[in-house]
Structures are given as structure tokens and as C-alpha cells.
Amino acid sequence: MGVYIVDSNFFIQAHRDTYPLDVAFSFWNKVKQLALEGKIISIDKVKNEIYDKNDALEYWCTNNLPVNFFKDTIEVINEYRLVTLWAFSRNSHYSQNAINEFLDADEADAFIIAYALGDTTTRTIVTQEVSRPEMKSKIKIPEPCKALNIRYIRSMEMFRELGETF
């Protein structure tokens, strides 16, 4: 069985828009269940993006996700190099600012791709980002995923694949 690696926007968009913590209890209970079962994970860089607001989402994550939910990206540093090479190879398409932002050590996107690249047969990225290949000012997760043969899906697709309802 594979594992789904959730991007920051899985949590942030759900919390802010679609499934607020104070209303959509069943969604958050399902997220907790999937995390405890090891079906969904994330990475340390996503944790840093979520834990920088000192808000209700950070509190929920701290109190509901397993201690080992956020994986250390140091283990995929070789894969990160491949992601970096891909980004630099696209310098005729993307602006230098887009590449710099994508590869920023504090940004999760390149690292989540590297983590998935560590085992493309069992790891799928879950992101709300939509492919925008014509965009030059920002590298969206789907573009390097397509180039590096990494599977990515949106949140609802993940729930369907897992046969989960809430």
C-alpha cells in the first residue's frame, strides 16, 4: 500500500475555506484517523509552514497528529538535488525569482517533490495546486511532478482512492 504526502495547502485551505475547524469536525476526525493509520504523512517543511501562525490549525495539528507524521527531509537530500537540477534546467521558461522561491530552503514544494521522488512507486503527493505550465512567475507542484514522473492528486481524489467518507 502506498502513502499520501500532504502539502501545506491540504491543511491551510481546508482550515480557512472548505472545512473550518469549528464547523467540519468529521473532516478533521478523518484526517486524524488517516494520519494515525499511516495512510497520510507530510514533511518537516510543511510543518514549518503550518506552525508559523500560532493559530487554531497549529494547535489542532499539535494535538491530533502523531509525533512521526512530519518526516525529516534530510533523508531525501539526493532527491532534492535532482529537483534542483530540474528547476535550473527550466531557467529559460521560469523567472529567476520563481526558481529562487521554489528552491528556497524554507519553502516546502521542492522538498515534498524530493520526498515523493524517494519512492515513486508508493508515494503520492496530495496538493490543491493546479497545473499551470504557461506560468513563468511561479513553479506549481504539478509541473515538476509531471517531469519527474511523480504521481500527484487533489484532496478529494485521495479520499475517493482510500474509499473514505466523512
Commentary on this structure:
The protein is α/β, with parallel strands linked by helices. It has one domain: Rossmann fold, CATH 3.40.50. Helices cover 51% and strands 10% of the residues. The chain contains nine helices and five strands. The protein has helices at residues 8-18, 25-36, 44-50, 56-64, 77-89, 96-103, 109-117, 142-148, 155-162; strands at 3-6, 40-43, 70-71, 123-126, 152-153. Strands 3-2-1-4-5 form a five-stranded parallel sheet. The longest helix is centred in the middle third of the chain and has 13 residues, at 77-89. The model has no long low-confidence stretch (mean pLDDT 97).
Q: What is this structure, in a nutshell?
A:
The protein is an alpha/beta fold.
- Unreliable spans: none
Beta content: 5-15%
Distance between the termini: 22 Å
Shape: globular
